[in-house]
Amino acid sequence: ASSRRAAQESRVSGLAAGADEFLSKPIDLRELRLRARSLLRLRAQDAQIRAQVEALETQQRFKAELLSLIVHDLRNPLTGILGYLDLLRAKFGTDTTALGYLDNALRNARDLEHLLASVLELRRLEEGALELQRARHDASSLVADAIETLQGAALHRRIELDHAVEPGAWGHFDPGLLKRALENLLANALKISQPDARILLHAEREADCVVFGPRSAT
Fold it and tell me: What is the pLDDT of residue 15?
């Protein structure tokens, strides 16, 4: 009994010290072969997993570099679009309706330019290096800006965009990220709404946060 207890203690001590396997004397050759095969199989599996992880990391780096190149290339035609819109605006003179449409188009194009720059922040976000630019903001201005961005698409589909922001609906937001979130919310609402519908972007303060949501009515 004492020898078995000593062998058990030796086994526990060996495993605690970091040993992968433990054999006590006298050694059984069949057990040795089986344990050796098991260790070799585990080693092969570990090597395979490490190779797969390395391949995924390489693929992720390639995707990030490709994304950076795409964003860079998209900026060039967008810069041209902005230039032509500025030229058109100078040609329309006193046509207030056309000027209003052009101003909205210019604003949306500049927002897109800013968005393309922000796409590069996704890589920083994945690396944990992106810091939120939080400050106190009233929700009404952010809601109005988001509606203005989608107003052209709404007019094209004969859908009315409106908002209702309850008094006191303020919070500490990153305005750029929240505006993009609201724009996505409205874009999704436009996709599922029928012509002549009315979409109301609602915002209200609840406890320590602000709740946003679209409400649709024909």
Answer: 67
pLDDT for 83 beyond 80: no
What integer pLDDT is reported at residue 40 of this predicted model? 86
Quick check: helix, strand or coil at residue 192? helix
Instruction: Tell me the backbone φ, ψ of residue 187, rounded to 5 degrees.
Output: -60, -40
Is residue 143 a contact partner of residue 181, using CB atoms and an 8 Å limit?
no
Q: What residues contact residue 115 under an 8 Å CB cut-off, 6+ apart?
A: 180
The residues, ordered by sequence, that sit 6+ positions from 170 with a Cβ below 8 Å of its Cβ are: 136, 137, 138, 139, 205, 210
**pTM for this predicted structure:** 0.49
- Helix H or strand E segment including 54: helix 29-91
Q: What is the mean pLDDT of residues 102-129?
A: 71
The 3-state DSSP class for residue 95 equals coil
Q: Which residues pair with 29 in a beta bridge?
A: none
String of DSSP letters for 108-149? HHHHHHHHHHHHTHHHHHHTT-PPP--EEEEHHHHHHHHHHH
Quickly state the pLDDT bin for 218 (edges 50, 70, 90): very low
- Answer for the pair 143, 203: CB distance below 8 angstroms, yes or no: yes
Whole-number Å distance between alpha carbons of 34 and 20: 14
